[in-house]
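Lay summary

Proteins are chains of building blocks that fold into shapes. Our project writes down both the chain and a compact code for its shape. Here are two examples, one after the other.
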Amino acid sequence: MLALAFTATAQDKVVKAVLEAGHNDNRTMEHADYIARNIGGRIVGSHMLNHAEDWVAQQFRSWGLEVVVQEAVTINVGFDRGPWFGRMLSEDGMTLHFGTPAYTAGTRGPQKGRVLLEPKNQRDFDRVKGALKGAWVLLETGPTSGLAIDASAKADSTRAAQLAAGEEGSVLMYRQMVEAGVLGFIRPSKLPMQVLYNRATCFDLTMDNLPKACDILLDEHQFEIIKQKVVDRQDFQLEFDIRNHFFPGPMKYHNILGIIRGSKYPDEYVMMGSHLDAYDIATGSTDDGQGVCVTMEAARLLATSGAKPLRSIMFCIWTGEEYGLLGSKYFVESKLVPWNKISNYFNRDGGPLAATSVTVPPAMYDDFVTACKPLFDYNPDIPFSVIKREGDPQPRPTQAGGSDHAYFAMNGIPAISFRESDVFGMDFIYRDIWHTEDDLYDKLIPAYMEHSAVIQAVTAYGLANLNHLLSREGLYKD
């Protein structure tokens, strides 16, 4: 009994220290500032993502965590983005608002050229072929997903089938226009711009088959102005200077795993995580810099409060999520931690909101109430609760969702995460920022993120100090 009393007292001291530091010395936003303002966009293939990995590992080590660096993704050719600038050269000229998908060509210095409308069919192409060299071509593609023009062989065969069915269009002419010497292609984009990457070829690129023509997504309002000038046959040019740089690989990317090793059950784990890679049209602050910062601060709060849990707590900073959950998939399939040794994996990748509750099946309910008890009166302005629910159907590969919990859930590993809410009515709408140029530091909500770091730390610590793993009974319906 004395040993149990001592353990409970030690746990209470750690929790008290975490709660106090969460109020008085919370550094979540310091991490966010570094990620957004010192590093910025972190696309797979870039040096910035490598820099971010090194920084996370160094921070974990400085707090006394054990660090495992797990190589998970390799890409053949690297891609770094420098500044980009464009303007319309005319009496009523203007600076252009645009972006280019990652893994598409730059200009290799400023490039000026006339502007042509897309050829609609082979006859149109043959008519304008001589004028294409050194020109910018407007593509009237309709709403864009932010991905690059799909110029893969597979796309060509698809377009050929469309041509046979009478569905002629500019993308069919893409290769012919590139061979004719166009400077690049311009498509309209809604605002805020969603600018992603070249999904068709980014993993297949070598230094011998790099894209040659620029792929520009332009503010739809400016696009219409320029298009009308072309229709009216006005005399003007566009100039772009786009510093997209390719360099030889291979470029390797890693999961950064910080561990507070368990004192009694070191091979059993409570886990939490978020992804470090981010699109480079902005700074990746909300997707998923905020998740990384909350995860890191939960680690710091526990480590610096002297936490010595019974089972291990792992803080997972994943790579390659935006390219297909590559880092977390690799972790799960490599079985670095056996699946039956994971009590739960908490994922955070839904915007900078406040963790306000956790919803669990009946067999887990009492354990979560025990683990979360210190949180029930922690912050009356952002109340926290544990809610009981029935199990859901086990996710299948096409149903698991688009974040790093998916491969855990698909393999029957508990991946219960916190419900996140806009408690103060900040009118935060994640879909308006997600994968766009507005994914910036000033969209973060410090009160919510700092609160969530404490919630995650205390919950993980409480679960790690149970004398058993969480029950999986009723986790999924049959």
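And here is the second example, written the same way.
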Amino acid sequence: MNNINFILIGKIKDRNLQSLINDFILKLSKYCNCKLIYSEEKLVFDENNEKYIQQALEYEKNKVVKYIKQDDFLILLDLHGESFNSEEFAREFHDIIQYHTNIVFLIGSSYGLSDDLRKRANLRLKLSNMTFTHPLSLLLILEQVFRSFKIINNEKYHK
């Protein structure tokens, strides 16, 4: 069984959203060992100062790398990543889980992700051309991973 970790830099403040996320974590437990990890976000006093943002990204990277092992398949949610429809993602995900036991999905903070993490990523995934909050992005990728398992196993869910 695959180990899949979902790492979110930041916190979820909305209890209803947290409940939906917990529901998908539970649903995924049928298909994989699933874990949700929250990592600390560094708040920037002056968001117009690129130096402070880069310092925050470096700080967040240093906090999150302890959860990512060298042999993990790292998938970043990234605005500049590759986009798939649900069937395409299920095929890609099927290939990933065939060859990799440990998979990590990483959702960055409101400042994005460091270039070092982008270079480390095995796949950079774009959810949409639209902008979503990071907690909502977590919910969306959880749902798509669940949908992928359903498609891969020829189970009813996907229309």
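What can we say about the second shape? Helices lie at 15-28, 50-64, 86-99, 115-120, 134-152.
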